[in-house]
Records
---
Amino acid sequence: MKKALITGITGQDGAYLADLLLKKGYEVHGIKRRSSLFNTDRIDHLYQDPHEADVRFKLHYGDLTDSTNLIRIIQEVQPDEIYNLGAMSHVKVSFDSPEYVANVDGIGTLRILEAVRILGLEKKTRVYQASTSELFGGMPENKNHKGFYDENSPFYPRSPYGVAKIYGFWITKNYREAYNMFACNGILFNHESPLRGETFVTRKITRGTAKIALGLQDKLYLGNLDALRDWGHAKDYVEAMWLILQQETPEDYVIATGVTTSVRDFVKMSFKQVGIELEFKGEGVEEKAYVVSCSNTDYQIENGKEVVAVDATYFRPTEVDLLIGDPTKSKTKLGWKPQYDLAGLVADMMASDVNHFRKELMLKTAGYSVKNQFE
Ligand code: NDP
Ligand code: GDR
């Protein structure tokens, strides 16, 4: 039975990957951080009572800033595959905590690779590094560059997150070349799902849309509506991570859909999913979206209502204007076949959020929702 160790197992990708590897018959180990509240919501359904026989899912306390604990866990687990997904992954927040991001996302990758080397596991343990399209970033003087990014495109990161991930990318490549390790970068473009963190733009939009439609929220405030992203489904992307580590030779791969869409159009698609047509008017910080029509009788929302506005707080000091990837290599070499297109992704996320907030509405209507836990 193969053993996998996943850092960042409590995150969006960690949860989907753990599920996939368990289905493939792996013994799955995950590193979770100690937190004051439970942080295992996304993987609770995979939990197995450690007192039972044949447990194949095990969690270990750890942190990418602590090399002694990484060495101990890797020594104990002796994994065949390590998926380094742990990171402070929010681009905007990385401007607020740049040193921490460098430590976790950059040096954290080194700590994993070095632990494998110190333990003499270079020949046994394959390492996947969660690299990102933020490496490409975008050149400010070339804002309207419409080219597709592939494995040979130059990097120009636009945030402390992107810069930290550049270190992770190169140190992975360097350990592959210097020590002959099976260490690979998956350069993944944005991927989303019903498990996506609530402060990333897609999930913020699908949650906001569901709440507005159900009358639980008045308005949704967003930042740059012009940003263009290549959005795929996380379920498809974790399959690619696994494929990357099953090849004969270690290589780096771009994982993307090849389609780019603006934040504004993602908003329109989400509202349309619940039968609400929107019209955007105005420019820059003055831009707003209004309801044009609502074909779903479940929702009491009047035409002309302002439901989206821009709040400059969400603008970034430096922005990545446009991302679009070329997945030719991953499709031909890995045989990677994504199941979801953007419409399918939006439908999946909206169904999940509408379902969730319908329950909240029922609790509120019945007088069970608690406003202040000290009351
Ligand atoms: P999430 O933010 O959902 O998950 C990040 C995970 O990392 C969480 O489990 C988090 O733990 C953990 N983590 C954070 N800090 C530390 C630390 N100091 N030590 C150990 N673990 C830590 O990210 P995603 O699942 O979306 O992304 C997975 C990886 O892929 C990340 O490295 C991200 O940068 C990268 N990536 C993501 C893309 C995307 O579109 N989703 C695209 C390209 C790359 P906790 O739950 O306790 O916060
Ligand atoms: P990104 O994702 O920065 O691409 O990084 P995010 O969803 O945060 O932003 C995408 C684009 O939307 C614009 N935007 C907003 N973003 C957020 N978060 N909140 C808003 O209100 C908002 N309004 C507009 C942003 O400016 C941006 O242009 C994600 C992360 O998962 C990274 O870890 C990963 O490496 C990359 O995707 C690929």
---
Amino acid sequence: MRFAGNHILLFAHPIPGVSCGWADSNWDLIFNEGNQTLSAHRDRIIQALDSLRIELPSWGFANTGTRFGKFLQLEAAATIEEKFADAAQVNALTGATPTLALHVAWDLPGDLRDANKILDLAAQTGVRAGSINPNLFESQSYKFGSICNPDPGIRRMAIDHLLESVAIAKALRSRDISVWLADGSNYPGTQSIRRRIEWMAEALAEVHASLGDDQRLLVEYKPFEPAFYHTDLADWGMALLIARQAGPKACVLVDTGHHYHGQNIEQIVAWLLREKMLGGFHFNDRRYADDDLTLGSIDPYQVFRIFHELLSDSTSMASTAFMIDQSHNLKGKLEAMVQTVCTAQELFAKAAVVDRERLATLQDECRLVEAEECLREGFWFDVRPVVQEWRSSRGLPADPLAALRASGYVERIRSERRERNVCSVATYA
Ligand code: PSV
Ligand code: MN
């Protein structure tokens, strides 16, 4: 028996000599069926894990905080070299994170001039540059918006930054330029919602025209924060419409923290998949707003359901970018990142277990409880032994979190970065 834990109990052969009114052949049938099911589950899990790659955020290794302050970590990365080194460590432990998302203002302050340095770091660490994230929210000029600002000069400045970001992505051979707008307003009547839509459409069309053949523009929506009356790109419908208008290489990015309470995110995913407009995810969890909590820490069932929708569409894996967008203020940054990747792998493996053919039959016949249980079978299945088996067979540590602790990496960078970090409070990332 390959599987440990509860699987043995579920499918155990009866104790010889103890009769419970069943012929041995009945038990053999169950035993064999059980084994076949387990072996099918195992195959699906292994295949799913091989296909899952998750991008790390460079800002997730830096000292970040809440609106009220930061709790500094002595091991936090401050330079791009440190961020690449930390990402490489996570990749070595998980084997699933070969790319690092970069924020232009934080990671390439010299814009395109810094591209060669990034290429060198990629070659040294084995971690490639991932999505390129323009920064349209920190400059003082953006107080009333970036590409939706009523001032044409500021709109031009924002578009130029987006064009520079596309050029950076080309130089780094990055496929995705990921745009999040902080644009919006705080009070009714203070801005024209309609004119701002037109400015946004014009800007994104210009940026789209500069994309290379293999590049994509990912458009991220968010219903609140930093603006609290209206956000120019507030939900997936607006993002879809504006992306469609921008051109065929634009699609939608779903940040799991950017929804109102009670919104059915997997339904949004299903629609975007149907429209061939799902570009990628920013993964995190939340209890209240955009809390940046660890993926699956609050509602793992929702993440599982999102993965189930993705796996229900045979084309989704090739076109969907899986990225983490979390900045931990309390948890150790490396630890939290490894924990997130492992959680994503486990929930993805659970979704892979779902027998979607059988589920479709049950749904067609409206056998409600059986259909629900068919879905839940995946969620309750303990995938951890197979995930460990997958890791070992790929030369990875069976328990990446324990391996991180045993490696002494965090202690080493803490002592190397301590002196600098003790006195650095000012920068956000
Ligand atoms: C905004 O809340 C956001 O989700 C965007 O993706 C930004 O790029 C990122 O967070 C910055 O942390
Ligand atoms: Mn995000």
---
Amino acid sequence: MNAAQSPSPVWHPFTQHGLEQPFKRIVRTEGSSLIDEDGQRIFDGISSWWVITHGHRHPAIMAAIRDATENFDQVIFAEYSHEPAEALASGLIELAPPGLTHVFYSDSGSTAVEVAIKMALGYFHHRGERKARIIVMEHSYHGDTVGAMSVGERGVFNAPYQPLLFDVGRLPFPRPGQEQQTLDALEQLCRGGDVAAVLVEPLILGAGGMKLYAPSVLAEIAAIASRSGALLIADEVMTGWGRTGTLFACEQAGITPDILCTSKGLTGGALPLAATLSKPEIFEAHRSTDRSRTFFHSSSYAANPIACAAALANLDIWRQEPVKERIATLTSMQSEKLARFRNDPRFSEVRQIGTITALDLATQGTGYLSDVSPRLRRLFRERGLLIRPLGNVIYLMPPYCSSAEELNRAYAAIDECADLIRSTS
Ligand code: PLP
């Protein structure tokens, strides 16, 4: 077998190499599309795993990256600093919910969450308080590093690693009508006095099935955490940058978490970067003349200047372009397209928050390992659409520049593929 015939050495994420169809090779990205080597334009209905906000290769972000490479590659971020990171931190503090004052950089959503957990535990440790328990919500997803898996839902994704995962308290998901049970469970768990942090995805659990809960519940969770002396960590890795209709989802509950994690849309999706924002007392608990209180965490690529420049360009786009209007337009186009599925018996539930819509296909075998999702993915792919259902949950989270025509195509395909799946189930 010569090199050209041998299988690729690439090991892809969340991919069963024994089963998958041949990979599509993408040669270019543009607006809301991926363009493959045969010249086919594929509508990126999930913003390439939720990172692309304004559209692929926004010219201002690309220009900022090109400019930054005139002066920078990577710069060590301990003991040294640079203007892109400083300007970005100031910009983030201005845009984030009020009261967050410090910005710690890392390089992915998972590391932003790891940092948040370590900050929370460090905060209590340095104050001499014995609080180290984390409370999370059922069905949550916070990433795939060991700490992030520990605070996420347990299941087939992390079964082999469970011996390594630490124990956390879990709240039942606040289904409509059952919110009080969640709040009571939180009160109960906090009574132990050992809770360091309550960690939540605000308003929508993403990878856990695009499940929604009300801003009033988030506000109650924040109040209980605060009363019991626990920190609230908001994982806005998916929800940030306008996805739910506001810049950050926490705004809709009128709360400022003690720690906020952001990544994905931070650079408009162009480069990997993450930030964990904290309130001043968390920073102050670490600041000392005592070296043992140092926040011992870094990623080699923390605060990469080129990624920071991309993020600064993203902030400028938010300030200068009608991003909110684009989000409002996409939100109303999504509502309009979703309307016809609302009483459709093929779907057990449809829902929307901001630019995100989800349709639960009423079908047998809905678990993650069922073949519903791969079959749907194949059908969508044949129709020039990147849509990756979570089990039986078909969702769209497209870039903000998506057109009505592209959404028409996506929803027509959802309609058609729902029939195809049912006729062959
Ligand atoms: N937190 C949330 C809410 C996410 O949705 C994700 C990724 O989808 C992560 C954390 C992990 O982010 P990353 O894949 O960049 O590590």
